[in-house]
Amino acid sequence: MAIPKKGSPMVSNAIHPTEIQSIPHEVGILPLRDTVAYPYMVLPLAVAQPSAIKLIEDAVDGNPFIGLIAAKETSSDGPMPWQMYEVGTVARIHRAVKGPNKHYHVIVQGIERFRVKVWRRTDPYLTAEIKLSPEPIEEGVELDALKRRLQILAQEVVTLMPNVPEEAGTFLENIDDPRFLAYLVAANSRIKPPTSQKILEIDNLNDKLRALISLLTREKEVLSLDHKIRTETHEEMGKAQRDYYLRQQMKAIQKELGEGDDGADELDDYEEKFKKAALPREAFDEAMRELRRLKGMHPSSAEHSVIKTYLNWLIALPWHTRSDDCLDIVHARTILDEDHYDLDTVKDRLIEYLAVKKLVRERNGEKDAQDAPEEIQGTGTLLCFVGPPGVGKTSLGQSIARALGRKFTRMSLGGMRDEAEIRGHRRTYIGAMPGRIIQAIKRAGTCNPVFMLDEIDKVGSDWRGDPSSALLEVLDPAQNHAFRDHYLDVDFDLSEVMFITTANQLETVLPPLRDRMEVIPLDGYTEYEKIHIATNHLVPRQIKLNGLQPEEIAFDGKALSLIIGEYTREAGVRNLERQIGSICRKTAVAIAIGKPEPAAVTPERVRQFLKKPLFESEISETIEVPGIATGLSVTTYGGEILFIEATRMAGKGELTITGHLGDVMMESARIAHSYVRAKAADLGIEVKRFKDTDIHLHVPAGAIPKDGPSAGLAMVLAMASIYTGRPVHHDMGMTGEVTLRGRLLPVGGIKTKVLAAHRAGLRTVLLPRRNEPDLDDLPPPVRQEMTIRLVDRVADTFDLALLPVPAKVSGTNKS
């Protein structure tokens, strides 16, 4: 297929009648792509297809006439007759030059219009029998009027077109042949190929002129509108440039007269601000580049304020401003003990951090952190406090900052789903700002604050990105020395920041992110610890917050114990402080109305203030019913006791499990049922009971999802109890994963579970023997008040957990 070369078609109306007579009846057809050939027009073509090259070679060696027809389907490499139009133009080859790549560059001139009568051959190229079809010229007034109108329109269009010489209008005015005029205008107008083909196919010359007049009228309107837009734009640009020039002159005149405004030199002061801010080399180079752009920009430009805001951000960041660490270990320990009771693991870890930093600084002889050896710089600390709500994770971060003498800043990650909140927005967006990490560093005013990231386990992700993945670069001590915010687009050093994250659970934290953190668990408090915390921290704080004096209200230990046992049930102390605050407010009301009450808050007055208890101990009465066992579980809010209930009824030996249980817990229930059936003889259970009775296992609080294998032991004992009629000790809790062989496997969260059992009033706990090392984490008061039974096999728990058969049940069995 032939491709026209760039440039407008050349014209020539010098066609001798003998040339038309020399045109054969059958000619080779050269398909055209995206163009239409007209009579009289000289057209340059590039020929690359093998079939087209063969046609050109044969025409050069023989008859120089070929047929030019536009192809309907431009994507086809070799069009067939049904893919071609039926009307084309016979053309004469004037010149054919073969290039180094064996392609031809051909110059042809259109001679006459033709129609295809019959397609003859398709190989090696298309040939067709044709019939010349020139348009008849009907002389008359109508033809003259149409010709004159087309000439005027063409001259007007030429005038509106840029970069067109004036001679083109004179040339159009001197054309006498209406047919030549029609094809000249059609060939040089902006007409799409299908429309050009329709113009060629019109048989009546008057109709052809009318069609061209319609097309040219629309083209004139488009060019007139374009000319108007270009003129208005040029005038606006000229006015803006003139105003800018006049303002610069006015500034120069005011400067000479000593009347200049101090704000006029604001841009000149930026470079001094950059040096004063001690920008790193990369940031300084970027700031200078933007400053040069700003100076050459009009103040009213929208980009002017964007660049200015960016430069102000660079200046405001604490690139090298840091707090000096207080390395007095005794002082730091005193502050931590003042603010928090217990939490020895966290305190010991911070003391280790201070001791290492002190030794490194003293033994390497540097005076400041930036003087540290390169292999020591950038080894930041990343702690993760994991525990239930209310145990003091966030307040502990504030205490660490106070102990170190650093600034403290905090950011909540709960519900965050947009990655741009971490990395910032690129400056191409309207209203772009740095990410919240850089914003917090700016608020802190130092490059080494204690930075707390709260609720890292509640970060989400959606179509806007994954903030957890963005936090990898922020929190990794090996790479956060070159953190690149999208807005700043320069490296910022976060290696000296002490990052502390908090979470209620680690399961939802991204594993690569979890791997970068040093996890420190903060489990719940015992009743003794809560009383100590309330006495030394919560009560004084609530007395102050509610405008009371210490002598106006005093809580005794029994009152606090009652609040803890009957009005709060939590791992932390948040609700405890809320209830203490409620009593303080009621006391403040009594004092404000002039009816002060006794200062001592006793258990009786606690019930008077707080009304009925919010929680009733679920094990306050002895459970004498077989089929109930007390399991221990861990939730995001701390440890809890979990009752496993089993009952049996006449049936066909089916097992029903309810309680909104997950797949793992459902499997534990089936394993427990199979194990009890396997041990029927050892338990004294008749085998026929499994065939003629159904068993229903239920875990209360059915609206709450539950999962995990640690309830396996409690399920075994509940089923063994219902089949044997022997109740389970009501003050005994248990946890452990059970296998079909009867082994008891270790589980996690032992400290949290035992603390929950202690809060609930249980006195004995059954644990897998392989969990014995976890008992070292238990507080001494809990170890003293509770009995821990360690077992290897499930069979060893039957005599420990199951009571003898009650007398009335024994009598029923005998009968």
Can you describe what's shown?
With 815 residues, this protein is α/β, with parallel strands linked by helices. The protein folds into 5 domains: 2-132, Archaeosine Trna-guanine Transglycosylase, Chain: A, domain 4 (Roll), CATH 2.30.130; 262-316; 329-521, Rossmann fold (3-Layer(aba) Sandwich), CATH 3.40.50.300; 527-610, Helicase, Ruva Protein, domain 3, CATH 1.10.8.60; 628-813, Ribosomal Protein S5, domain 2, CATH 3.30.230. Helices cover 43% and strands 17% of the residues. It has 29 helices and 26 strands. The strands form 6 sheets. It has a 7-stranded mixed sheet. Strands 3-5-6-7-8 form a 5-stranded mixed β-barrel. Strands 10-11-14-9-15 form a 5-stranded parallel sheet, with helices on both faces. Helix 3 (141-160) runs antiparallel to helix 4 (167-173), helix 8 (266-276) runs antiparallel to helix 9 and helix 18 (527-545) packs across helix 19 (557-567). The longest helix is centred in the N-terminal third of the chain and has 53 residues, at 205-257. The model is unreliable at 372-379 and 809-815 (pLDDT under 50).
Q: How do the strands and helices of this protein lay out in sequence?
A:
Elements lengths: L1 E3 L5 E2 L5 H5 L4 E7 L8 E7 L2 H12 L3 E6 L16 E12 L5 E18 L5 E6 L8 H20 L6 H7 L4 H11 L4 H9 L3 H53 L8 H11 L4 H15 L6 H15 L12 H11 L4 H21 L17 E5 L6 H12 L3 E5 L7 H4 L12 H9 L5 E5 L12 H9 L7 E2 L6 E2 L5 E6 L7 H5 L2 E4 L5 H19 L8 E2 L1 H11 L6 H19 L7 E2 L1 H8 L17 E8 L2 E13 L4 E4 L4 H16 L1 H4 L4 H5 E6 L13 H13 L7 E3 L2 E2 L5 E2 L4 H11 L3 E5 L11 H6 L1 E5 L6 H4 L5 H8 L1
Parallel strand pairs: 3-5, 9-14, 9-15, 10-11, 11-14, 16-17, 18-22, 20-21, 22-25, 25-26
Antiparallel strand pairs: 1-4, 2-4, 3-8, 4-7, 5-6, 6-7, 7-8, 12-13, 18-19, 19-21, 23-24
Helix pairs in contact: 3-4, 3-5, 3-7, 5-7, 8-9, 9-10, 11-12, 11-13, 18-19, 18-20, 19-21, 22-25
